[in-house]
Design goal:
Blueprint (H helix, E strand, L loop, with lengths): L1 H45 L23 E6 L12 H22 L3 E5 L11 H14 L7 E5 L2 H4 L7 H11 L4 E4 L2 E6 L10 H21 L20 E4 L19 H4 L12 H11 L3 E4 L6 E5 L3 E5 L12 E7 L4 E7 L3 H23 L3
Parallel strand pairs: 1-2, 2-3, 5-6, 6-7, 7-9
Antiparallel strand pairs: 1-10, 4-5, 8-9, 10-11
């Protein structure tokens, strides 16, 4: 009898030890899976992105002094969900994706400036003061950045509403948080930020005020680009960098559709031939021509369509439509990396992990875990 009890205790001990060892291995595998899909995969994907090379010495320069290079990233349409349409699981999944992508990009790439080209929020057009404050707090957590990186946000229609929804209160609360202005210059490189929602051309107070500011700014920039500054209109005008500006806005300039857009992150085939509506999908022809005439930019970057596109205006001015940064709007989000000097620039695209890839890894791992549980439980 004592021998039987001893044998029984020994068997129970080994069963207990085997069970605990299995649970330990199972827990470790689940932990490793989560760490890989929620952290490591972002490093593996973004690590493959490289800053594009750009000429640092202007052609024909006598002094051959290298131009300082500015490292910039451009992203668009983050659409942080609000309290009305924002399901908690959707918020958790997609905002975590953007946070990990942005923080990983900052750590690996070390950009000097990060621009977000509008539609930071999804419900800024109607959110209450309390909901707005909560959304801003989440934004500041997700897109936190070190002191050596500047974050500049351009206004979009979901931040202050379409033209018929926009008012001074919404615009001012946006400016209070993001210090939204029309001009930013660094290392001799000029950026012009346009509130494209106000480019309606109907003479509304906000529209008229913004157009007046843009005309004044274009005068300063054009006078600064004159070689001898001898024009009477430029006498006594503040001198800015002589570099042709880069135009940043949410709405793209006018184009008929995305039919000519190419690339894996362009609009899907069934949407490419849908004609755009002026003042809703793109700026009007008149507003687009005004901006081109006022600023004569060397490059334009925009968002709003959630898909990539490259177009050429007047046969010489390129515009890049930046795809959405969020899984909520597309399976393959990305951002633009730019190496920019005062006379030249070079751009490249950095893709983020595909949402389908992450979901496939989770599903495959789930099936393997289920098989592992079955094979373990059968002997028991």
């Amino acid at each position: 009898m004592p021998k039987y009890r001893l044998l029984s205790r020994t068997v129970n001990f080994f069963h207990f030890k085997r069970k605990n060892w299995f649970l330990l291995k199972f827990g470790f595998l689940v932990f490793a899976l989560i760490v890989f899909c929620e952290y490591i995969i972002y490093y593996l994907v973004i690590f493959q992105c490289r800053w594009p090379e750009v000429k640092t010495i202007a052609s024909g320069s006598k002094e051959q002094t290298p131009e300082p290079v500015l490292k910039v990233i451009f992203l668009a349409d983050t659409h942080l969900l609000g309290e009305v349409n924002g399901h908690w699981l959707d918020k958790l999944r997609r905002e975590w994706q953007m946070e990990r992508a942005f923080q990983t990009a900052l750590w690996l790439l070390q950009p000097e400036v990060a621009f977000i080209l509008g539609d930071v929020f999804d419900e800024g057009k109607w959110s209450s003061p309390e909901a707005w404050a909560a959304d801003v707090e989440r934004f500041q957590r997700i897109f936190r950045h070190p002191p050596h990186t500047q974050l500049i946000v351009v206004v979009g229609n979901h931040d202050i509403g379409f033209h018929y929804e926009m008012n001074t209160y919404k615009l001012q609360r946006f400016k209070k948080v993001f210090d939204f202005g029309e001009f930013f210059s660094i290392k001799g490189i000029n950026f012009v930020m346009v509130n494209s929602v106000a480019m309606e051309g109907d003479g509304c107070n906000i529209c008229s005020s913004m157009e007046a500011q843009l005309i004044k700014l274009s005068h300063l920039l054009n006078c600064s680009r004159q070689e001898n500054h001898s024009s009477p209109k430029c006498f006594g005008v503040q001198q800015l960098s002589a570099s042709a500006p880069i135009l940043l806005q949410h709405y793209p300039l006018y184009r008929r559709s995305d039919a000519e857009c190419t690339g894996e992150d362009s609009a899907p085939p069934e949407k490419k031939n849908i004609l755009f509506e002026e003042r809703y999908d793109v700026l009007s022809k008149e507003a687009s021509q005004k901006l081109l005439w006022w600023f004569q930019p060397r490059l334009i970057l925009s968002g709003h369509t959630h898909s990539a596109c490259e177009v050429l205006h007047d046969g010489k001015i390129p515009e890049i439509s930046v795809p959405s940064f969020s899984w909520r709007n597309r399976n393959n989000p990305s951002f633009i990396m730019g190496s920019i000097t005062s006379v030249d620039y070079s751009l490249s695209k950095c893709f983020l992990p595909l949402e389908h890839t992450v979901l496939t890894i989770y599903c495959t791992a789930g099936i393997l875990v289920a098989l592992l549980l079955l094979t373990h439980c059968q002997p028991l």
